[in-house]
Amino acid sequence: LEDAQSALNESEAEEKRLTAELAALKEGQDDDDDDDKELFGDDDEDEGKKARKAKIPVVEGQLVVTQQLLNARAQAFIAINENLENAKAREAEATGGGEAGAQSMMAKKMCQSKLWNAGDYQAYLSSITEYRHAADVKGYLNLIGEGNDAVRTKVLGANSTDGDKKKRSRRFDRTFYRTCVSEGLRNVCYKFVIPPFRAGIILEDNLTKGGPGFSFDKKLPGEGSDDPARWVPPTVPSTPQEFAGDLVGSGELVLLSEVMGRGGDVLDSLEEHPELQDPLRGCRYVAAMELAYEPRIRRHLRSIYRNNCTLSTRPTSKGKTSIDAFHEYHGLHLIKEKEVKEHFPMDEEEQERRKMGLSAEEQKKVDEQAEKQEHESCTQYLRILKAERSGDIKVNVHLPMSSPNSDGNEWYEQEDEYWNKRENQDLSCLTSELEKVYFPLNGDTDEWNGERRKVIHLALTQFLLPQFEVEIRRDLREAAVKKGAEEAADTLGKMAMEGPLRPTYMITENRFLVPTGDLKMVGFCLSTDNKEASYFAAVNERGELVDHLAIPGGTRVDGDKMREKVIHFFLVNRPAAIVVGTGGGVESRTVARKIGEIITEATERWSKRFVQREDEDDDDYIERQAAERQMYNAGRDEDDEDDDDWKCNVDLVDDNVSQLFGRSVRGKKEFPDMAVNLKIATSIARHAKDPLAELTYAWSVASDAGVFGTEMLYMNVHPLQQILPKTMLLRQYERVLCRAVAQVGVDFNAACNQSHLHGLLTFVPGLGPRKAASIKQSLVRIGGIIDSRKALLGKRLLGPVVYNNAVAFLRIRQTEDHSKDLHPLDDTRLHPDVYHRNNWAQKIAIDALEMGENLNASSSDREDMQNTALRNIMKDSRKEIQRLFDATKEEWEAAYGPTFNVPAWDPRVNVPGEAWRDKVEELDLEAFAGILEEQGNGKWYSHLQMIKWEFRLPFQDPRTPMEPLSGDKLFRLLSGESDQTICPGKEVVGKVTATTDFGARVKLEGNVPAFVPLRNLDDDHVESAEDFVTPGDVVRAIVTTVKKDHLCADLSLRKEDLNKLPSSWERPPTLPNLDSKFDREAAQKIERDKQKEREERLAAMRLTTDKGAMDVDGKSKRQGNVMKRACAHPAFRNELEYGVVDRELREAGDAMVGEALIRPSKRDADVLAVHWVVRPGVIQYIEVVEEDKETDASIGRILKIKDEEFGSIDEILGRYIAPLNDRVEEVMNHRKFIDKLTSEVDTYLKEQKEKTTGPVYNLCWNEERPGSVSLRYITGRNVRHHNISLTPEGFQWKENNKELYKNLDRLLNAFKLNPQGAPKSSSSSAAPPPPAALPPSGERNRPRRWDAPPAPPAGPPPQGWGHAPPAPPPRSRWDAPPNPVPPAGPPLAFAYGAAPPPPPRPPSGPPPSSRDYRSY
User: Fold this and answer.
1) DSSP assignment letter at 1161
2) What are the DSSP calls for 951-990, one per residue?
3) Are 362 and 374 in contact (CB under 8 A)?
4) What pLDDT does 1118 receive?
5) Residue 829 carries which DSSP code?
6) 20 to 30 A Cα–Cα from 511, which one of 78, 408, 680, 1358?
7) CA distances from 772 to 345, 544, 769, 775, 776 (A)
8) Is 60 exceeded by the pLDDT of residue 345?
9) What is the mean pLDDT of residues 1365-1371?
């Protein structure tokens, strides 16, 4: 009221001022002198009179507006004054009765009977089973409670609830709701709309009950009568305007809209927002919000929404440029209105409908098809999340759009505003159900139905749909993540259930008859760096490293001298197999073949060691035999020599786990002084012996936070694992490993004595990492070995409960370390309860052999007899397995010839029960189990059956032997390529290595060999390859065929193939299927537009050059300063202005960090500019000089950055930009790096200097020079700094003679020794300083200048302010940074299943400096 009065006074004052001003302007205008008019005429008015005359209409207009404003404000003042007087009257009436009046006022405003029925909601809560439905009830009651609190505060005062105040924050989005409820609008709104909880009951019955649906005779708990009028929306005889006017006049309806303003703003506000004049706006808001939060309404509308909701994806500007038919995200960027329900399990009603009338087999197929569809949809959404995170696509969840192409644009070209506007969605599926509930049965006026329709629309668009969209996105992510984690776990499970490698000579044998056993292995790790050595590592039967051989970098393994060393190494160790890791890439297969030739020669020498050579006499023969016996049979008996028939083969194996071991903390702990490649070779051999042990070994190291298994996150298990929650992934991995270890079993003594096998104990059911470590320490104290399972309990290695849970999975195997025979059942899966606590196993064996038991014998004799019976019955069963194999083979070959698959025969699967004839089969174990049950021992029939099978196959390994690599997997591991990255139609870049009579040989990225046949070199007839290409040329070609078995590809340079649309090539069947909702026409349209744009760009480039223009010497001459280039590389932009490229990079956000775009430099026709995104918002410009250009519009064949030469743009990105990104990542993860401004770092350094007497230093980004680091330090009062430049080879310290350091730690060590850097010479002619002399002997052991302590042992890096976590490995091909795990060596740099790439070639000159972008 005061504001209205003030505004009214202002308007009155303004009216008076304008009236006086107008009167002054008109004064004298009507009294002009007639004589003057006669003498001088009417055109001689002075300038002042003209100005006053022109101003009169303006002031008159202002006066009219002010008078209108005065009238409006006067009316508003009168209305507010009347409302206030009415409110005071009601308050006086309410408070006149004291507390009873206040309670009556609150009860009227709260409308409890309109909002809930306690008995009904109790029954509803007892019927629901989902947490979400219970949360809906809680949310509804919280909303009602907030409104009631607002009413209570309004009626009783702000301090009325202080004694019962609850500490909870109030939601700001409910402020208007609380205000409306406190003013009594809840009571008003339910005079024309049905209460929300009754609307929910009607909607639920209509949707869930068949037939007529809701019955109006329904009676709720506590209601006295069954009046049907309660379930009918109330009607009002008057119009909404009359209804509101009456309530406003009576003071029951308060206008909450802000209509008063200052200086004439009122009319503008009312014109811009006419809804502010609607008195029922607050009532509709209250009704809509309470309707939207009602539990039943939310539950059933959510179900309708999920059944009708769709998913659409569209490419961003970046995605349109980069996504083609061969892109990782192809098929994900143009999905149009795919039903979201396909991503979730089929509901029961839909499942029953589809299975109706089908047979059991057909119903099973329906279930399998639905499960497959759900799995594919969830995997697809994971890929969509990855694409959305990279900034290539945008995702919208919505109801079907009503008019997607109304403005003429394609649906995927619509702006975000169109997709976010819910009025563009078809809401009929929701509004039709609500209108059935919300509209009176007998109809009502269009005006009142319009009011109710506004309530429904407001409830949907403002409250329900936004929340449903958030829920569905969350549910989609959770379902996809769950499926992705399960899929990753299944992949790890397959890796864990892969058995030991069986040598070639054992492949033809059946593993149930000839077990693999513990074999000696040799692992080989091929170095990808010529500066590092490759290694052979020999391990014994227990997996211990016993010998190794280094192959120096650059040395061929089959060279003359090295060949003899390798043969000698093989002859000394005589492994059963040699396994070569695939980490060396394509070269691994070549080296494996060479090693195969060497091992063939070595085995031939061994087999002919007793044959006297033609060139040696008897004495030489005897001398050679003695030397070989001493060399090759150390520690062996001579009697065994004749029987030692050595066989060996060479296999390629996946060294993913081994590469991890070589660079891990556990590798450094086990082999602290060994080279990384030697540790990898050792792990390769161990992995071939027992893959499960190596996987559990990788789990056994805890992170700094005490979390086990984080090292496994670096394993290439699943291509989408980087976007899965790490905690969920580790939990799934742990379950898989527990299941695998329980099936395979653990050799207890070996696991406790061998560090690489100790991880198996962690996953034994009942144990864990801490119990396993305690057991190992306890066993070492008592001698390192036990002889029986009883000793586990007797020597207190395990407690009774843990023993009972874990003992059946622990094997006590007979080894040479045991001095006596062990109990035969201690190496079986049988629990001691069946052969120690109860002698049922012994009884079965004795009864089967019909031995009879001597009751008068001593306990030791009786035990010996029982053990003898056990051994005899197990021997009898093994003989029966051999008989069954021979019989099955003979029967098969009699029917089908010699095609029997010996390795695949499994007695548990391929032999029917009636075919067994061993002695244990003769016993009636079912009758025996019945006797035990009658005696009160419980049901033991399953255990008795297990006893029978353990007699036959004691602790049989359930894993299938490791299969040799071949096909797609071998191609992926060696080349790092897959059908996603190289397939027919894919455009690739390669370098011509040679030309032949049949075509040209090309080397692709990743060293994949390729070949261009003569017919594919040109569209016309080709006589010779030299006419088109020469060795050393870099060509861009199209892949026509991929020969995975031969590890090569066929290419084409024909224009016909180059101009074909990518989508016209056949899609590889191994790639994910394109979704049925994928808009192929839109994808082809985008492809055609890009192709057309490319052709126009190339045509424009051709017009800028004149190849026919020749100079005097007959050579083509340059035609001016042509800036643009005829280049179609995806990282190239034909923009001369730096701002255009910078804007593209910045708009892409964090997705472009580390990426680079290249454009022509406007400084020179032979210069390119590289825009490299160092970090978000910071771009460095690098100059590239072109040489050996064919035309001005072409890219130079030689590209130079300073003195370093590159052959193509891809080479610049791979050899220059990629190493720079590694330097940036090393800086950001360094413990001394602080990601703050230099001023903030200086302040921090000064604070730290006050706490310590020594120097303090830290690293931060140099704000003035992009791509540079500032090393800031303080030794006294002022902060000093050095500039550190990033180069592909390392870090360059400018103040220290621009010396180059490979890593930051080396640079900082040099900095600590000399903080000022190298001294600057006073003149160029100054004599060089004398060589530094050694300090005196007494001073050589002095601490360094900065009193740095000696290097601490390897451990977790420091954490805290200014310290970053340890550096993670570089990003893999999945484009997702992994969680950091501190490696103990060079970082992993290989892609999913790929070999590590070769190191970049060192440049011959200093790195480029950061130039001013204006010169480009």
Assistant:
1) -
2) HHSTT---SEEEPPP-HHHHHHHHHS--TTTS-TT-EEEE
3) no
4) 41
5) S
6) 680
7) 40, 21, 5, 5, 6
8) yes
9) 42
CA distances from 686 to 493, 522, 591, 751 (A): 19, 9, 20, 14
Mean pLDDT for the stretch of residues 1385-1401:
38
User: By the 8 A CB rule, do 789 and 762 touch?
Assistant: no
Helical (H) or strand (E) element with 288 = helix 281-293
Nearest to 525 by CA among 544, 549, 504, 545: 549
Q: CA neighbours within 13 Å on the CB side: how many for 1198?
A: 7
Burial degree of 1196 (CB within 10 A; 0-12, 13-18, 19+): buried
Rounded Cα gap, residues 698 and 733, in angstroms: 12
Six token digits for residue 784: 């390192």
pLDDT band of 633, cuts 50, 70, 90 = low
Could you tell me the maximum CA-CA distance found in the chain, to the nearest angstrom?
A: 164
CB contact set of 478 (below 8 Å; sequence gap of 6+): none
Q: And the tokens for 228?
A: 């049907």
Residues contacting 626, CB < 8 A, separation 6+: none
Angstrom distance (rounded) from CA 1077 to CA 386: 19
Find tokens 């060192």 and name the residue: 1402
What local confidence, expressed as pLDDT, does residue 231 receive? 86
What pLDDT, in 10s, does the model give residues 151-162?
A: 888 887 765 554
Place of tokens 């190493």: 1219
The tokens of 1269 are what? 């680091």
In a 3-state reduction of DSSP, which class is residue 491? helix
Q: Higher pLDDT residue, 141 or 636?
A: 141
pLDDT of amino acid 406: 59
In terms of C-beta density within 10 A (0-12 exposed, 13-18 middle, 19 or more buried), how is residue 859 classed? exposed
> What's the token pair of residue 677?
């490649």
Average pLDDT for residues 668-696, to the nearest whole number?
Answer: 92
Residue 526 has pLDDT above 90, yes or no: yes
Which residues lie across from 1187 on neighbouring strands? 1198
- Nearest of 780, 856, 868 to residue 824 by alpha carbon: 868
In sequence order, the 6+-apart residues with CB closer than 8 A to the CB of 212 are none
Q: How many CB atoms lie within 10 A of CB 279?
A: 20
Asked whether residue 37 carries a pLDDT value surpassing 80, the answer given is no
For residue 1389, pLDDT beyond 60: no
Q: Strand runs (DSSP E) across 673-807, as ranges?
A: 746-747
Count CA within 13 A, CB hemisphere, residue 948: 23
User: Does residue 680 carry a pLDDT above 90?
Assistant: yes
Consecutive H or E run containing 440: none
Share of the chain above pLDDT 70, in %: 82
- State both tokens at 1327: 């004599």
Rounded Cα distance between 1130 and 988, Å, is 12
Asked if 1367 and 1225 count as a contact pair (C-beta separation under 8 A), the reply is: yes
Q: Are strands 577-581 and 521-525 parallel, antiparallel or unpaired?
A: parallel
